[in-house]
C-alpha cells in the first residue's frame, strides 16, 4: 500500500474512532444531566474524553482545548495524548467535552460533546477569550455577510439573496447583556430573534439547515474555541462564517499574546481558522434540534452522533446501541 493510500485508510477508520470518543464523553456527561453541577459534568466528560483519545493510534496534540495547563489539568492547550503511531500519524485536536455545561447541568437542549481532528497545523490557536461571529448556511454568493457591515446591511443582503423579506429571517444570538445593542439593531431591522442561553457551536450549525431549524443567520460574541470548532463544522457541511477575537480586558490581551496572536483585530474566514482535511464529531448529551441526547435503559445505552469530513464533505448520522453498559465505567 502506498503511503497516501495507507493514510486515507487510516483517516477513514479514524472517523469512527472519533465518534467512539464523543459517545463515551457524552455518556459520562449525561450522568450529570440536570444535577446543577457544571463542574462535575465537565470533569467527568473531560476524563472520559481523555481516556478514549489516549487509546487511539495517534500522536495527538490538543490545540483547541479547555485552556492553559494552569487553568485545566486535562485536555489543556498543548497537551499530547494518544497511544502513539508507528506510521507517524500526528494530529491536532480541537475538543469541547461538554459544549454547554450549563445546558447539561440544567438538562436544557443542545448540550454536545465535540471533537475535531486534523493534520498538524490545521487549527487556529486561539486563547480562551471571546470571538465575534457571523455565519450563514451554504449556497450563497461569497462574502454575502461581513462582520464590518451593520446588522441591517447583513440582513438585507441575506434577505435579497434568499428572495425574502428581512421580516422572514430569524437570527440566532446568545442571550447576554453584551448583545443589547445588537439585539436592538436586529429588531429595528425587522428580523426575528432566537435567543439561546448557551451553546453557540450548535447555534452556528443551525444556519446550515434553515428549513429544519428555522435559523437563517448566527450573530454575536461567544467563546473563541467554540468559534474554531464551529468553523470546523462549516468546513465540512458548507456555509460562510467570519470570526474576530474580542479581548475585554488586560488578561484577555495577555492570553492572546501568549497564544501568539499578533493582530487582535484580524477578521478570520473559515479557512483561516481551519485548513486542510479534518474530521469533526459531535454526540448529543441532552436532546436538541440536531442530535438526541443519551438514553439510559436497563440493557443498553443509546447515543446519537454526527461525524463529518471536510475533504469529502460526508456527513454521517450515527445512532448507536451500546449493550455493554459497563464499558463506560
Ligand atoms: C460561550 C459560547 C459557548 O458559553 O463561550 C458561552 O461560545 C459563554 O459565554 O457556546 P459567557 O461567558 O457570556 O457566559 C457557551 O454558550 C457554552 O459553552
Ligand atoms: Mg466545555
Ligand atoms: Mg464550550
From TrEMBL:
<dbReference type="GO" id="GO:0030388">
    <property type="term" value="P:fructose 1,6-bisphosphate metabolic process"/>
</dbReference>
<keyword id="KW-0464">Manganese</keyword>
<dbReference type="InterPro" id="IPR004464">
    <property type="entry name" value="FBPase_class-2/SBPase"/>
</dbReference>
<keyword id="KW-0119">Carbohydrate metabolism</keyword>
<dbReference type="GO" id="GO:0005829">
    <property type="term" value="C:cytosol"/>
</dbReference>
<dbReference type="GO" id="GO:0042132">
    <property type="term" value="F:fructose 1,6-bisphosphate 1-phosphatase activity"/>
</dbReference>
<feature type="binding site">
    <location>
        <position position="99"/>
    </location>
    <ligand>
        <name>Mn(2+) 2</name>
    </ligand>
</feature>
<protein>
    <recommendedName>
        <fullName>Fructose-1,6-bisphosphatase</fullName>
    </recommendedName>
</protein>
<feature type="binding site">
    <location>
        <position position="96"/>
    </location>
    <ligand>
        <name>Mn(2+) 2</name>
    </ligand>
</feature>
<keyword id="KW-0479">Metal-binding</keyword>
<dbReference type="GO" id="GO:0006071">
    <property type="term" value="P:glycerol metabolic process"/>
</dbReference>
<feature type="binding site">
    <location>
        <position position="66"/>
    </location>
    <ligand>
        <name>Mn(2+) 1</name>
    </ligand>
</feature>
<comment type="similarity">
    <text>Belongs to the FBPase class 2 family.</text>
</comment>
<dbReference type="GO" id="GO:0006094">
    <property type="term" value="P:gluconeogenesis"/>
</dbReference>
<keyword id="KW-0378">Hydrolase</keyword>
<feature type="binding site">
    <location>
        <position position="226"/>
    </location>
    <ligand>
        <name>Mn(2+) 2</name>
    </ligand>
</feature>
<feature type="binding site">
    <location>
        <position position="42"/>
    </location>
    <ligand>
        <name>Mn(2+) 1</name>
    </ligand>
</feature>
<dbReference type="GO" id="GO:0046872">
    <property type="term" value="F:metal ion binding"/>
</dbReference>
<dbReference type="Pfam" id="PF03320">
    <property type="entry name" value="FBPase_glpX"/>
</dbReference>
Amino acid at each position: 500500500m502506498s503511503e497516501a493510500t495507507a493514510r486515507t485508510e487510516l483517516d477513514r477508520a479514524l472517523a469512527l474512532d472519533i465518534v467512539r470518543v464523543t459517545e463515551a464523553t457524552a455518556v459520562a456527561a449525561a450522568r450529570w444531566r440536570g444535577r446543577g453541577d457544571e463542574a462535575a459534568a465537565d470533569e467527568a466528560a473531560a476524563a472520559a474524553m481523555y481516556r478514549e483519545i489516549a487509546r487511539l493510534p495517534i500522536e495527538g496534540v490538543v490545540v483547541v482545548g479547555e485552556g492553559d495547563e494552569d487553568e485545566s489539568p486535562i485536555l489543556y492547550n498543548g497537551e499530547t495524548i494518544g497511544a502513539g503511531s508507528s506510521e507517524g500519524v500526528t494530529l491536532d485536536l480541537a475538543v469541547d467535552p461538554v459544549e454547554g455545561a450549563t445546558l447539561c447541568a440544567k438538562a436544557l437542549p443542545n448540550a454536545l460533546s465535540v471533537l475535531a481532528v486534523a493534520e498538524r497545523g490545521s487549527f487556529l490557536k486561539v486563547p480562551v477569550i471571546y470571538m465575534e461571529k457571523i455565519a450563514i448556511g451554504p449556497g450563497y454568493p461569497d462574502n454575502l455577510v461581513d462582520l464590518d457591515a451593520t446588522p441591517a446591511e447583513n440582513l438585507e443582503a441575506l434577505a435579497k439573496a434568499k428572495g425574502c423579506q428581512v421580516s422572514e429571517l430569524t437570527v440566532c444570538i446568545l442571550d447576554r447583556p453584551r448583545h443589547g445593542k445588537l439585539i436592538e439593531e436586529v429588531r429595528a431591522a425587522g428580523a426575528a430573534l432566537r435567543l439561546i442561553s448557551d451553546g453557540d457551536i450548535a447555534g452556528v450549525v443551525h444556519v446550515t439547515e434553515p428549513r429544519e431549524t428555522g435559523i437563517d443567520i448566527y450573530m454575536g460574541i461567544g467563546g473563541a474555541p467554540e468559534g474554531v470548532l464551529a468553523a470546523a463544522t462549516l468546513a465540512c457541511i458548507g456555509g460562510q462564517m467570519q470570526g474576530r477575537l474580542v479581548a475585554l480586558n488586560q488578561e484577555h490581551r495577555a492570553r492572546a499574546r501568549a497564544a501568539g496572536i499578533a493582530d487582535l483585530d484580524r477578521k478570520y474566514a473559515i479557512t483561516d481558522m481551519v485548513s486542510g482535511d479534518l474530521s469533526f464529531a459531535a454526540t448529543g448529551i441532552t436532546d436538541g434540534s440536531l442530535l438526541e441526547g443519551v438514553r439510559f435503559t436497563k440493557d443498553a445505552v443509546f447515543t446519537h452522533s454526527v461525524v463529518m469530513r471536510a475533504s469529502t464533505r460526508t456527513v454521517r448520522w450515527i445512532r448507536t446501541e451500546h449493550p455493554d453498559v459497563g464499558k463506560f465505567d
